[in-house]
Amino acid sequence: MLAELDKIHKGALAAAAQVIDQAGLEEWRSQYLGKNAVLTQSLKQLGGLSAEERPQAGQKINQVKQALEAAFEERKAALQADKLQQALDTERLDVTLPGRAMPLGRLHPITQTLRRINAIFAEMGFQVYRSRDVETDEYNFLLLNFPPNHPAREMQDSFYVEGGSADNPLLMRTHTSAGQIHAMREFSAESPENPPPVRIVLPGMCYRYEQVSARSEVQFTQVEGLAVGEDITFGDLKGTLTDFARRFFNADVRTRFRASHFPFTEPSAEMDVECFVCGGKGCSVCKHSGWLEILGSGMVHPNVLRNGGYDPERYSGFAFGMGPERLTMLRYRIEDIRYFWRNDLRFLEQF
Amino acid sequence: MKVPISWLKDFVDLEGVAIEDLAHTLTMAGLEVEEIRYLGLPIPSGQQLAKLSGLAWDREKIVVGEIREVGPHPDADRLVLCRLFDGEKEHSVLTGAPNLFEYKGQGELKPPLKVAYAKEGAELYDGHQAGLNKMILKRTKIRGVESYSMVCSEKELGISEEHEGILFLNAEAVAGTPLADVLGDAVFDIAITPNIARDANIYGVAREVSALLQRPLKPMPIEVQTDGPKIEGAARIEISEPELNPRFVLGLIREIQIQPSPEWVRRRLTLAGMRPINNIVDATNYAMLELGEPLHAFDYDVLVQRAGGQPPVISTRRAKSGEMITTLDGVQRKLDDFTVLVCDTAGSLSLGGVMGGLESEVTENTRTVLLEGAAWNFINIRKTLNAQRLSSEAGYRFSRGVHPAMAPRGVQRGLELMRQWAGGQVAADLVDEFPLPPQSSVVQISPQDARRWLGVELSTGQLSDILQRLGFEVKTQGETLTVTSPDHRLDIGEGVIGKADLMEEVARIYGYDNIPATRLGDDLPPQRANRSLEIEERIRDLLVRQGLQEVATYRLTSPEQEARRLPAGTPPDDKPYTRLSNPISQERTVLRKSLLASVLEIVERNANIRERLAFFEIGPVFRASESGPLPDELPRLVLALRGPRQPAHWQSGDGDTQDFYDIKGAVSTLLNSLGLRELQFEPAAHPAFHPGKCARVLADDQPLGVFGELHPQVQTEYDLGGDPVQAAALNLDTIYDLVPERFDSQSVPAYPPVLEDLALVVDESLPAGQVEALIRQTGGKLLTGLALFDVFRGEQIGVGKKSLAYQLTYQNAERTLTDEDVAKLRQRIIRRLEQELGAQLRA
Ligand SMILES: [Zn+2]
Fold this sequence. Notes:
The complex is a heterodimer of chains A (about 350) and B (about 850). Chain A has about 350 residues and is α+β, with helices and mostly antiparallel strands.
């Protein structure tokens, strides 16, 4: 009987090696390990054996059974591995076909630039102050030290709005500086004898009576800034705006301050930064000067401080103004300012 | 303002100063050199401060030539052959210059004519073409005569547009000298800002250069040689409005000869941008360009004639409103009552400080010139220029302010130049009416002011030195400087304004570069809440996360453009537009009332560019205010969706177009995320939207806005493509009011939820919102989730019916729910649905 078991064992292993699929393997299992299998039947024959032979034969049957079960598992695993391999070999995608785009929203490029500017100044303690688009001549010009018929008014052609008086016409603001007076008056009213210091940025839409072209628009955004306190100097203006340029452009950017003129500041300065396109060597972007004109600035004119409720004998301050469109155009080398309000997706999707 | 360097050198020594360095110094000090035009001098390459233009004259190839004889061309009458010496040898040069014809056939010329001689290979402007085109001089044959060089016109050298004849040089010029050494020059074009109006003249710029380079300034050239009898009795002045005309000065020169000015004068005027006319007019212009005082020359004999043989009485007065005058430019002008006229007893002569009249102008027959220099109120001149839409060199200067002290100086300079160029005798003395001398400004400053304004330590000596270089008179006593402004400037104020004015001068001359950059050390201001801005920025971020593209549009529009957002025939609303009084185009005449219209224009513009469109904009609309003349500026948010829900892809199927429920979802997601959890939706009527596909959204019973599918007529009015546009218009001011500052968070449930589906058949007309509200109300706290997952219509459930299938989530925060709990609740919900809404449970 032992010899018979050995023969079954060998025969079964040989048959298992021939099995090629899961169904065959199940058939093999019922043939060698099932109810009617020789091995199962031989268990029933144990009763006919002598007491000495019985344990030995029983043990042997168990050994063979375990071996065949192990062979089954092994073969099953091998067949599964084969099958997986087969699947992996056939399931091939063209990885060069395009992926599915997520519907991505974006901020308008000017919003992005405004946020960068505001964030940099926020870290220096400047808070955003907003004011209206439609202004009076008084706030837009007069209180900012532009007397009527002043030559500087010519530099700012305005859109006038119906409904004002002859003395104080309404207009679309030509700069967000109008907000400087609103802010100073609001703050100084809190404590007229001892007005609090001011550090604000004033972003907003401005308007100018100009023919629309690649270089000029009827509306444009502007960010102005204002710092007023008891100890603020032209040196602070230079330092603050240079720090801004280093954050906005790059840490090594060089700045330069040129004397200029704005009615609401004195002394006034234009800040240039070294051209980041050519590194200052001269290129078409910087018109071969090596420098890019970035913003206008200056010490707040005593008349403006006074009009805001701040005594110019005690307080001083600086103000500055820049154009987010220009900064955006320089940064991305945009050729045409009209792209911003035209909102062609082929433009907007780039930012 | 155009400043030839050669002219500047009359007043300040520029030896050893590179042109480009000078331009840089001026620009940094606020006299921005916008362009440098080179005349013969080498043009540097590489980085440049200003726009560079012009022509460099090759030192070898363009030199002084000496024409020794002018002979005829063998077979061309209109050409001559010159025997020309170039410093080394003689050449035969062919030219058609008409100003050489008179020398033809005179044999050896004594003295020879000095000309600009260009050799083969020289770069010149093409004299025969309009505009400035550079060309290289090539060897050629003209009418059988070989030509390899030429004598140049001003145009060929880039000096002026003149190409009629060749340029003659001074007799002293030595043949063979590079022309650049004789005539080489550069012209700065300087932008004159209003604060440096005093520098709108050569002497003013020279004063700045002298202060900046610390080189001495030559005295103002106001000496005049008076050979004639005194002016006394020759003319009288009457000023009736000293506020508008504080000073009026007259000088007289007799026996002049009108003729062209000397060559160098004509060239200088041309370089400075003025056209030479004759020696008298040129002298007035030259003196104005040099000193900044505009002058006016009258034909004295005409004035005497007009006065009936008497000495003329020149008076200045306001025009009568509607009075007429014909100015030099030939325009007949109707005047306002603020315009000041210069008149004589016979009538008006000129627009004071702006432009002369036709009648008393200098002509070829003029023998005696009465020369006017005056001072005018600059604001009044500006008003006049604006009212007359006129610009003139005189008006440009007087409208920016010219000090009255300049009037006699200008007249003296003008008379002297006339004497030199036109002969004649200058009458001794001037007639000078000066009823309103200006107060000189006196300001006290100290080093503390420089510290406080500029953040720089300057001694009294340094401050005094800087200001004196600019012509201020400074008296120092201890730490205090008493500064009197010079009598060529009107821009220094009093008190603290004057201090600021002086600090600007100190900073400019000391150099902005030399002021150290520092960080703000002043107290920080109190921080202030900025709620609307913060919510606005959150909205932007949320919508971007929802896949929408932000746009920014024009806030100026036209009623016609905005009317497109409503179907034709919609009655206009009663809110009037805020209108521009000076629109620049028909497209932008009013301030927008609708942000929806603005955004729809952007949808239209992109309709054929992308299939899927998803836009939003935040911005104001403008509405006439009840409380004052300024319009209300109301913050609005508009969303617009069109086309496929997902961006196009090669695998995507059809039928996933954004519809009403997409815009509703976008609106609800946004508002929920802002903390507005309890929203109500109700059908709404708005003319821009499809009447059956439009809803209003409310929170706390306050309407936040409307949304829906665009009205089909509006869809066609704009060219928006096939798929209907879904849009929403929300009032941000209401949203700002309602967004909660904070909310309580919910703990994560510790016990498992029970999920259950419920399918109901209801009447088609029953809004799902009512079903949902009833389920929620009945479910109470235990019902934590309710989601509609299917809406079905079909024969199985009968005509006029619909099936709504919901998934309900039951959850108890304190314990696990039993089947019994759930069954009870479910029964209650179903009973109420059946009884109150006539719903049937669907098997
Ligand atoms: Zn560059």
